[in-house]
Specification:
By secondary structure, the chain is of the alpha/beta class. The chain has helices spanning about 10-25, 65, 70-75, 75-85, 95-105, 120-125, 150-155, 185-195, 245-250, 260-335; strands at about 30-35, 110-115, 130, 135-140, 150, 170-175, 200, 225, 240.
Length: about 325
């Protein structure tokens, strides 16, 4: 629940300012989000007063029992009756939280989004670095032949959806209770957490494992909790804000890059351009010097070539003179 101290506007503003500063000085941010990230898109969470677990399932079974592996296998009709009414929201759209995270990713600061949600809203908003721990309702597959189906196919089928190829039961590509998470997703999430210099945990009560334990892999205390209710990490976190996730993230992530950053990038580009120009000039000067040297070398070689050509001419001249002398002697003899 919201703490008494957070009800004071000045305290809330100070926390927003502090989160802004933490984000600005961070270079590798990891975001861990739960159902509270999507509630502002009209998708209910699980454990709040109005959450899925605390409302009627519409069947004789408890909601928490229905979304389990064994129940799905034994009672597919009841599972899909509940699933279509309570777990799929194809018309839901990204909210302020999803859009703020996209901006943070494009600024190069957010390196990974670890989500427990199955609604695909992060990807729809435009995020690229999403690790889905619990799968997605937008992916479905035949349990017999493996053929894949979209969410529209599931929603259009009455009762239990069957494969149009082999007739097998089609199931959503989500992790049910009693099932293991994909090892690759868990490994990638832990690797990202270990690298981060700031971890933002939002919209989750931190009661679902193993996501609830990811913070233990941090080598620092730079953790921010944004959640309406309290979590076991509140006292360990560097900053805790009890508020709507979308409202907070929208305030702390700028919608435009600041002029300071733009000027810095422009200066960097100009410096690069100058360096490139200097290199080009140096190459040009070196090329001219080499050309001049080559010309001088050619000039020195040319006279030798001419001398070599004239030598045969002198020999030819000497032969002619010899012939003339012989002819003159012959005339004298005749006379």
């Amino acid at each position: 629940m919201e703490t008494r101290i957070d009800r004071f506007g000045s305290v809330r503003d100070d926390k927003i300012k502090q989160l802004k500063e933490l984000i600005e000085e961070s270079k590798y941010i990891v975001f861990l989000g739960g159902a509270g990230v999507s509630t502002e898109s009209g998708i209910p969470d699980f454990r709040s007063g109005a959450g899925i677990y605390n409302t009627e399932s519409g069947t004789k079974y408890r909601p928490i029992d229905i979304i389990a592996h064994d129940f799905f296998i034994e009672h597919p009709e009841d599972f899909y009756d509940f699933y279509k009414r309570k777990l799929i929201y194809p018309d839901a759209r990204p909210n302020k939280a999803h859009k703020a995270l996209v901006r943070l990713e494009r600024q190069g600061k957010l390196k990974a989004i670890i989500t427990q949600n199955i609604d695909n809203l992060h990807q729809e908003a435009g995020s690229k670095c999403v690790i889905e721990l619990h799968g997605s309702v937008f992916r479905n597959y035949c349990m017999d032949c493996g053929k894949k189906f979209n969410i529209e196919y599931i929603a259009a089928q009455e009762g239990v959806p069957h494969c149009d190829k082999c007739g097998g039961i089609v199931r959503p590509d989500i992790v049910l209770y009693e099932e293991n998470l994909e090892h690759e997703n868990v490994d990638n999430a832990i690797k990202a957490v270990k690298k981060c210099d700031l971890m933002i945990i939002a919209g989750t009560s931190l009661t679902v494992y193993p996501a609830a334990t990811f913070a233990q892999f941090l080598k620092h205390d730079r953790i921010v909790i944004i959640n309406k209710s309290s979590t076991y990490m509140d006292l360990k976190a560097l900053l805790t804000i009890h508020d709507n996730v979308g409202e907070v993230l929208d305030k702390v992530v700028p919608k435009r890059v600041s002029r300071k950053n733009t000027a810095s990038k422009t200066t960097s580009k100009k410096t690069t351009a100058k360096k490139t120009s200097a290199k080009t000039t140096a190459k040009s000067a070196a090329s001219k010097t080499a050309s001049k040297s080559a010309s001088k070398a050619d000039a020195k070689k040319e006279p030798k070539a001419e001398t070599a050509k004239k030598a045969p001419a002198k020999k030819a001249s000497g032969t002619t003179a010899s012939k003339k002398a012989s002819s003159s002697k012959a005339k004298k003899d005749e006379s």
